[in-house]
Amino acid sequence: MGSKERYQLLFDKINQYNSGDKGITRVAYSNEEQTCTHAFMRMCKSENLDIRMDSCGNVIARREGRIKGLPPVAMGSHLDTVYSGGKYDGAVGVTAALEVIKRLNEKGIETDHPIEIISFACEESARFGVSTVGSKAMAGVIDKEKYRHLRDRDGITLEKAFALCALDFNSIDDASRKDEEFKAFFELHIEQGPILINNEKKIGVVTGIAAPERFIFKIIGKASHSGTTPMNMRKDALLGASEIALALEQAAIREQENGTVATVGVMNIESGAMNVIPGEVEMKVDIRSTSLASRKRVLDELHEVIAAVKEKRQLEVQSLEISSEEPVLLHADVVDTLKRICEEKDLPYEVMPSGAGHDAMNMARLCPTGLIFIPSVDGLSHHPNEYTPMDVVLKGIDVLEQAVLHYAK
User: Fold this and answer.
1) Is residue 288 a known part of a binding site?
2) 124 labelled as ligand-binding?
3) What pairing do the DSSP bridges indicate for beta strands 276-277 and 224-225?
4) 378-393 pLDDT per residue, tens
5) Are 21 and 143 found together in one domain?
6) CATH number, domain at 276?
7) Where, by residue number, does Zn(2+) 2 bind (predicted)?
8) 78 is in an annotated binding site
9) Is 89 annotated as a binding residue?
10) Is 214 annotated as a binding-site member?
11) Are residues 363 and 225 part of one domain?
12) What's the pTM value of the predicted model, to 2 decimals?
């Protein structure tokens, strides 16, 4: 069996674990995700790897090196999905890591350093509203008390979900490896955007991972009858919110050379009706960039616009910051190594930031980290039609293999 056929079989085996009728639904700590995880552990066992599951549900499968005591070179991603997601997000990175091990075993290659596959738990925020739980725990930055009582849409808490998987939430700090040494970590992932496919590039070499700053704004005007209130006497909260949203778009456009983006993802009208002037609107805003300075310029401009709209329309605006994370710049030596590998293999590549978060951003706290992108057809992700041609996936695995061998010697 050739490498392509072998990998396709492995990829298909992973994606048979699915509770959805449309796309793939394998949400964190669910029966389907846990069954998939244990099946993956058996697949690793068949390659003679030493396997363990930590207190957060992360799977670590280790191939020992020739020289005892050297730090491991790790690679991996996640097996959980969003609701009605695609086959590739996360699963590609985990199965690619196992394919690398299969290739090394097939060739009889020993490395000086041990090599680990890590399948991270709960990367997606779909179920509990918080992302990269497993890699946060491994990096020692989990906020246990903040996360304990988070609930899914069925009212099950994160703590209860742990218990249903025979995990003890109170022991989650034991998953931390911040006092251990890693040589390097690599994650292969689909881009989840249109840049590579539009630029006809096979590989994305990621330089940094954008971090979001998120707000809830409440715009308060005065609800009144749409037929009896003259236009010059209205305090329309929706029109105020709309002005703010459009101004936010322009502020982000002015920063697009820095890769900064801004989104109003939610705009809810309180007690909205066709014949009532909107009196209260809630907006949820996401601003993200790999540049803190650029993100701050967008935010400063947003606050200026809000102040102007408040005065112009006689509105009240309440603001609540719900998160402000630091962007992650990836190790320059790792970026240079990945570029060199692409050039040696004559693979067209793009040096680019990642607008989405990944487990790699937490592993970057522990060691030099590389994030390798492969194209997403039509830029689709978190969607049943998510697709990357298998030949392109294999090119990404080739780069991953060479990067791991370079660091594991």
Assistant:
1) yes
2) yes
3) antiparallel
4) 988 989 999 999 999 9
5) yes
6) 3.30.70.360
7) 89, 124, 382
8) yes
9) yes
10) yes
11) no
12) 0.83
